[in-house]
Amino acid sequence: MTTNDSPLRRLASLGQSVWLDDLQRSMLEDGTLARLIADDGLSGLTSNPAILSKALTSGTEYAADIARLLAGSATGIAIYETLALEDVQRAADLFRDVYDRSVGRDGYVSMEVSPHLADDTAATVAEARRLWGLLARPNVMIKVPGTRAGLPAIRALTAAGINVNVTLLFSPERCRQAEGEYLAGLEDRLAADLAIDRIASVASFFVSRIDTLIDRRLDALSAGGEAGAHALRGRGAVACAARAFELHGESMNSGRWQALAAHGAHPQRLLWASTSTKDPSYPPTKYVDELIAPGTINTMPLATIDAYRRQGQPVLTLERHLAAASDTRKALEALGIDLEQVAGELERDGVRKFVEPFESLQRWLEERRAQHRL
């Protein structure tokens, strides 16, 4: 297979960007990330507290830097932030050419605000501004959870000229609200006579976790004798993603968006996140195969990238299945599965899943700081 034959590169020809959902020092130093960019057309990268915590506590690649920072009496949180900022900056520098060639459409690397701030708008805005200033790269995004408190932060940060990755989205309606806040932030900038042509945002819609929860409920219904429940397994996530895609399309056809586009605005792109399959009975590329659509992004862990490179057959799929997705949503609701309630439960659980590794990392670093003082 030649470089241009890579299925990952062929996704780009269909209008879908491929980003990596991982970040660790080794891939920066051994050339892994550079090769993915050169060979597979990788055009962005996302990280989160769980990813960064695993990178820092696994192996020895950060040991020397941690020891150096401990010698300077740095706190656990300061050590984490210093190392995370360095890795994000280095990754952003690798993607800078992608960013320049795409005129700001791609080439972004994301870093998340503290998950403890998910329900605090003002603190989220302040933290995002601080991280943006420290990163000092035009091709970074600050990840802000799409909670109720996070929504107004999107507008404030966009108005301030900060690229935002809205994370932990499980509801098509919440995606619509996040996009509305982004557009409002652009409108605020225009009203202040500020440029909007180099600001970007993505809405990260988490797919596999939706199926994990819905499938569990379908299994219980099936065990109770509910006809048709089993046949809906593995269809809920794509059905919800399809609705988010439909709502995004409606926004792109609106006069509101057209007015902003006339000033060079970039749309807030849908990004399919949590794309590794959790159910071993599903194909490892399920959430790539079924979510190919122009103007979208799929952020994949390395295992999913490797699987798709081996067996991917890129064709536009999502738009073909919009009607079937609508039928799936109706069938799930008819069985008593409230998709908005599912989204709310997943949002709360998602925040917890980011808080726990973040706190665990802080404890791990503080333990090493205490040992260093002995």
Which key features would you list for this structure?
374 residues; globular; TIM Barrel; alpha/beta; 8 strands
Quick summary of this structure?
With 374 residues, this protein is an alpha/beta fold.
Unreliable stretches (pLDDT < 50, length at least 5) are none
Number of strands: 8
Q: Give the overall average pLDDT.
A: 94
Number of domains: 1
Please state the CA-atom Rg, rounded to the nearest Å. 21 Å
SSE ordering: HEHHEHHHEHEHEHEHHHEHEHHH
Alpha plus pi helix count = 16
Strand order of the largest sheet: 1-2-3-4-5-6-7-8
CATH architecture call = Alpha-Beta Barrel
CATH class: Alpha Beta
Instruction: Briefly note the structural class of the backbone.
Output: alpha/beta
Percentage of residues in strands: 5-15%
Query: What is the terminal-to-terminal distance?
Result: 56 Å
- Secondary structure: helix percent: 55-70%
The CATH topology is TIM Barrel
- Global geometry: globular
Q: What is the makeup of the main sheet?
A: 8 strands, parallel, barrel
CATH superfamily placement: Aldolase class I
Characterization of the model:
The protein has an 8-stranded parallel β-barrel with strand order 1-2-3-4-5-6-7-8, surrounded by 9 helices. Helices cover 57% and strands 11% of the residues. It is an alpha/beta fold and 374 residues long. Strand 7, helix 13 (286-289) and strand 8 form a beta-alpha-beta unit. It starts with 6 loop residues before the first helix and ends with a helix. The longest helix is centred in the last third of the chain and has 35 residues, at 339-373. It has a single domain (3-373), classed as TIM Barrel, CATH 3.20.20.70. It is globular and about 65 Å long. The chain has helices at residues 7-13, 25-29, 32-40, 49-57, 63-71, 76-101, 121-135, 150-159, 172-191, 208-223, 236-252, 255-261, 286-289, 302-311, 322-334, 339-373, and strands spanning 17-21, 44-46, 108-112, 140-145, 164-169, 201-206, 268-273, 297-300. The model has no long low-confidence stretch (mean pLDDT 94). The protein is built from 16 helices and 8 strands.
